[in-house]
Amino acid sequence: MVRAKKSKTTLFLMELILVILIFSIASAICMQLFAKSSTLTRDSNRLDNSATISSNIFEIIKSNNGDLDILKKEYQLYDDNIIYFDDDFDNCNKENAVYKMIITTSSVKHLNTYNLNIVKGKDKIYSTEYKLAIKY
Amino acid sequence: MEKNNFKINIGLTSFLMVFIVLCLVTFSVLSLVSAKNQYESSQKSLNHQEGYFQANNEANVILDNIDTILHKSIINTNSKETYYNNVINELTDKNYIFNKGQLEYVVKISKKQNLHVILDVLYDSSDHSLYNIKKWEVENSNKWNPNNDLNLLQ
């Protein structure tokens, strides 16, 4: 009887080891999938927000015939035409910033070009170029 | 004699493991599929927006050229007719349509969409501007063909 009980315990132990092994492999794969989906969601949110903010800013500039000063009414515009955003892409001050939008302008005769770059640290998130013809 | 009530259920852990692993796999695959769809949707929307703004940039470059032409044409003109004739002469090689004081051009956004621009060419306007943007509109380039196979009650 003792022998039968001993063999049952060994079997249970073997099963438990196998279960833990399979579970750890499966959960490792699943965790990678969860991590990948989390990264994809974060990237798509960033893209959506960056594109929306960039087009908003361009439309504001366009409404003022290309003058960047109008942005001061809507956003906290720092020197060198930099606007800071927090994690939710709300405009914020430099200290709480996560993302930074750098606006560079150039003009050839009466055609202004605006380059809008959104960066996080050193990583470039989104970059776009807008052109605007200014009346003579 | 003391009886030991503790029983080892062989197989129960395996069943439990199968259930938990199935749940994990299902939820992780579902979240990945949903995230991928969201990413593809935002990429599509971004491409659409970039297409529009590229056409917008192109239209602004054309507008700048037109403004230069209008500026060149208005110098040394003393009547509206002379001015319009000068504009027509300057625009001969270009794909712009000039008719009755209106200048029209189209920029392609995609296979299905165009950016249609119409400008009112002004002469002697109060604010000294040479044109007014009358239309700056995205239009569908292919026609809608309704399916009229079914005889519906009208």
Compute the number of helices of chain B.
2
Annotation, overall tally of beta strands of chain A: 5
Number of strands of chain B: 4
Strand content of chain A: 25-35%
Which structural class do you get from the secondary structure elements of chain A?
Answer: alpha+beta
Q: What is the chain-wise order of helices and strands of chain B?
A: HHEEEE
**Average pLDDT figure of chain B:** 86
Helix content of chain B: 40-55%
- Largest sheet strand order of chain B: 1-2-3-4
Q: What is the H/E order of chain A? A: HHEEEEE
User: What profile does the largest beta sheet of chain A have?
Assistant: 5 strands, antiparallel
Structural class of chain B: alpha+beta
Shape verdict of chain B: elongated
Could you walk me through the main structural features you see in this protein, from its secondary elements to its overall organization?
The complex is a heterodimer of chains A (about 140) and B (about 150). Chain A has helices at about 1-65, 70-75, and strands at about 75-80, 80-85, 100-110, 110-120, 125-135. Chain A has about 140 residues and is α+β, with helices and mostly antiparallel strands. Chain A has a 5-stranded antiparallel sheet with strand order 1-2-3-4-5, with helices on one face. In chain A, a hairpin with a 2-residue loop joins strand 3 (about 100-110) and strand 4 (about 110-120). The longest helix of chain A is centred in the first third of the chain and has 62 residues, at about 1-65. Chain A is rod-shaped and about 100 Å long. In chain B, about 50% of the residues lie in helices and about 20% in strands. Chain B has about 150 residues and is of the alpha+beta class. Chain B is built from 2 helices and 4 strands, in the order ααββββ. In chain B, strand 2 and strand 3 (about 115-120) form a beta hairpin. Chain B is elongated and about 115 Å long.
